[in-house]
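Slide 14.
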Amino acid sequence: MGSIKQDINETFLGLYETAQEKWGDFTQFLKEAWPLLTILLLVLMGIWWYADPPPPRHVVMATGQPGGSYDALGKKYATFFKKKGISLELLATKGAEENIAHLVDRKDPVQAAFVQAGVFNPHGVRGVESLGAISYDPIWLFYRGPEVKANDFQEIKERSKFFLNSKMSVGAMGSGTYAQAMHILKANGFEEGAHFLNLSGAQSVEALKKGVIEAAFIVDAYEAPNVQTLLADPNFHLAAFPRAEAYSRLLPYMQILNVPAGAFSLSRNFPATDIKLMASTTNLLIDDRMHPALQFLFLEAAREINGNTSFFAERGEFPSFKNTIMPESPVALHYEKNGSPLLMTYLPFWLAELINRLVFVLLPFCALAYPVLLTLPGYRNKRMRRKIDLLYGVLKTYEQELATNFDPESKDEYLKKLDLLEYQALQLRVSKSMSGDYFALRTSIDYVRSCLNRGFHPIQFQEGPSGV
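Slide 15: predicted structure.
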């Protein structure tokens, strides 16, 4: 048993001594090769900074009209970004068309925007990518007067003619509401008339209440104040889309939303029967030059803010990468398959981003440094041998001077020179493979000193490793 313990102790002692020796060699290597490694690291850091600069700490995002649902949503995103140490500036706009114009302009500071599907023609748009759809935008058609039954086609047709001959708000010019209303009207063969008014959502609600208009299109979230105001007022009715399947074929970006009877108000049994609504989607569009780290941050914001259960969406349904209105960003494709980088899940954004970027430079640094490391032991040995040879050269000079013209009065002077030479030899840090040359040098110095102490005689000492 004692023998086994002794073997184990000796094994660990050997490993410890080997580790100490390797660590000593490594630290000595760093002391000798640090200039070369520093230059290599600085070159790679410069390449890294140029090829993968850090993400900006300030981002500008176009939302929508002040007080609208996009404005409220943008504020939630700004709060999320603030927690991550990024300033998200919100830019209020008149609607989707203006948002797209900001993104297309390569000199514009706007890098992200909420844009409703179907409000613009994506063909010919360059430099814009999608991070996916983040919410539904139901198309609400509220009206005054007698209620139209959704299953009575003839009555629907007559009521539609009534709408088209009455004052109706189709949304502000350039807004998502206006675009969707025009799509639906044109799909039914109607063109914009003089009795169509271009009112904002808030203006439409006010006009309906005062009886200035008979109907109004509003494209907004279920939770939006304008929508909730009209849903809660029994004086207004909601037009359904019994031919929703046909709309979804004619307008492929359209989504069908099913609303069960009583879903809006059980006490009023509103709606009285199951109905179908049409909906567009809000897409999160970005400038394709946006830093990948910021794109991941936007996707994480969408998951946290828009990914919860809502009236029309299930938990985890958004962000969605189906039927996006613009090509998906490569970052979005990666996120769809793999989610966010693992480090972003457990570390603060700035730290996770820094580590990811450091990996970018450390991997190539190691790839370049490894072959350098392999050659450095030989490089180090050559340097040490050159130093030893230089000391041998000085020693040989002293020996030749003494052998040619020995003067006893110069003995003390040469002893001091030999002491200094030995001190220089002691300062050398050599590997085990160079130990023989090192001790041979010190032995040669002792030999010359010994000869000098007993009265110098011209006897040549043994040559050094380089024939000195």
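Speaker note: The chain has 14 helices and ten strands.
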